[in-house]
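In the lab's daily routine, each protein ends up as an entry in a very long ledger. A line of letters takes care of the sequence, but it says nothing directly about the fold. The fold becomes a row of whole numbers, each drawn from a learned catalogue of backbone shapes. The protein below has been through that process, and both of its lines are reproduced in full:
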Amino acid sequence: MCRIITLHQRVYTFQHLMRHQFHMYNLHMR
């Protein structure tokens, strides 16, 4: 059970980071 929760959080964190980087990239291009 603990592993599943950790994996889920890891994926969530990864998506959050990607979204943040994508946002920064857009700001730079503008």
